[in-house]
Specification:
Two copies of one chain form a homodimer. With about 270 residues, the first copy, chain A, is an alpha/beta fold. The first copy, chain A, has one domain: NAD(P)-binding Rossmann-like Domain (Rossmann fold), CATH 3.40.50. Chain A contains eight helices and seven strands; from the N terminus they run βαβαβαβαβαβαααβ. Chain A has a seven-stranded parallel β-sheet with strand order 3-2-1-4-5-6-7, sandwiched between helices. In chain A, helix 5 links the parallel strand 5 and strand 6. Chain A is globular. The two termini of chain A are about 15 Å apart. Chains A and B meet through helix 4 and helix 5 of A and helix 4 and helix 5 of B. Chains A, B: Keywords: Cytoplasm, NADP, Oxidoreductase.
């Protein structure tokens, strides 16, 4: 808004929950977001891998010693409302802070699994496997998000921002990646509805592009789709694959520029954001 | 294909599985589809409501006494691969038929629940509720579909057609209908991937428009969104709401004209199909 008093997104006293912070994009988000958080911010890192979380924590504190970083080793798929609420409340407790102490309440739904990449969806007939996959990627996201917004209700802080890490797979079908596509499409719709229902929230679905992570390696090793495999191999060889650093920088610009409409999807390659 | 020998969709000896056939659109589909099936076709009706299924069956046989209609009262959310497979195999058994006896293998994924319509997605923090909803609307669809295609693999019959009953909610967020939107978005993506992975299949996501069913009544009674409620009330009063008969006729034309690309979504109001 020209002439307006646009609050800079970064530098605020922030309470941030980040899922999947033990590796890959999540770790880079933690470090770079954390570096830009205002003094006495709190960063809550959730992931299964306790050692990975501790390594992330050390790097974040190296980047910004003026914030509190709390690691919560937890399997999101096994968490419910009570666990998630207590995790957030304990995070506040460790920092001796109350919700109203912050300028920005910020949650980054980055955790997600690739699902079964070997067979096609016509072959996937295991109900248990489907249910576990959907619980991790949809249910736990919905419930954690709900608990976060209960701790930080409307007017509790000046700004509330929710990011969903999405994928091209949310809007385009990919052979051999059916579960991943289904979960990403479902999540993007979830966050669109969230935005529609809560005009006071700022909701962004950010698609990080084809990023060089363990997930990419897993696609290369497991996909049945020779074309997709070759595309990823070529990108890695020609170094045209996006790095964690590049996509982190991009999403930070997108948040800072704030040219998206709440609920919208923005891709790494989209111009004008 | 001009000049080609396009097989008419209706009138073939068909093996059809239809979910949610005890009421509403599903019942109308059963009757009108059944009326057009060739001699010795088999229609397998799955739904929870046993009495509703029997009533549907009687109406189908009235419309076409030359086919076999098998009712399977079952809670799809509780079914797994084994149950679904045995249901299909038993259906073949009752008709003393083998998969290869048919010209068309046809599955209609019509069952689906509206989910929780009262609260917004930010308030829905019940993991059990989310999981049950996703199991019924996504997992059971995926697993039943897989078992159907195992009984009718590529080249087992000349034509294999899969319909997913979708909604405007699959592509547009609606206040107070978050779970429904999420499930419909997820299902549409599932069937897009299925089409991409299986070029020999014919896959259609059909959106029946705002149809006058119990589901509409439930939206009117439960939605928090006054605007949406009023739109439905107005449509009912002015009789501009789509009837089960109208939408059934439309989807039958769409299947017959076959102008959609496999995996595509076609809405009741879309022209040119």
């Amino acid at each position: 808004m020209p002439g307006g008093t646009l609050q800079p997104f970064w530098g605020q006293k922030t309470f941030c929950v980040l899922t999947g912070g033990s590796q890959g994009i999540g770790r880079r988000f933690a470090i770079e977001f954390g570096r830009k958080f205002g003094k006495e911010s709190v960063l809550l890192l959730l992931a299964r891998n306790a050692q990975g979380l501790q390594e992330t924590r050390a790097k974040v504190l190296e980047a910004n010693p003026d914030i509190t970083v709390v690691c919560i080793p937890t399997d999101l798929a096994k968490g419910g409302a009570e666990l998630f609420r207590s995790v957030i409340i304990n995070g506040l407790g460790e920092a001796k802070a109350a919700p109203g102490d912050f300028q920005l309440a910020f949650i980054v739904h980055n955790a997600g699994s690739l699902g079964n990449v070997g067979p096609g969806v016509a072959e996937m007939n295991d109900s248990e496997e489907w249910s576990e996959f959907l619980t991790l990627n949809i249910t736990s996201t919905a419930v954690l998000n709900s608990e976060f917004l209960k701790v930080f209700p409307e007017n509790s802080v000046p700004n509330r921002t929710v990011i969903n890490i999405t994928s091209l797979c949310a809007i385009q079908p990919f052979i051999s990646m059916g579960q991943y596509c289904v979960s990403k499409a479902a999540r993007e719709m979830f966050f669109k509805v969230l935005a529609e229902e809560n005009p006071s929230l700022d909701v962004l679905s950010y698609s990080p592009g084809p990023v060089d992570t363990d997930m990419t390696v897993s696609i290369i090793n497991n996909t049945r789709d020779a074309k997709a495999r070759q595309i990823f191999i070529d990108m890695k060889e020609k170094k045209t694959i996006v790095t964690c650093e590049q996509t982190t920088e991009r999403v930070m610009q997108v948040l800072s520029n704030k040219k998206y409409k709440s609920g919208q999807r923005v891709d790494y390659f989209d111009e004008g954001y």
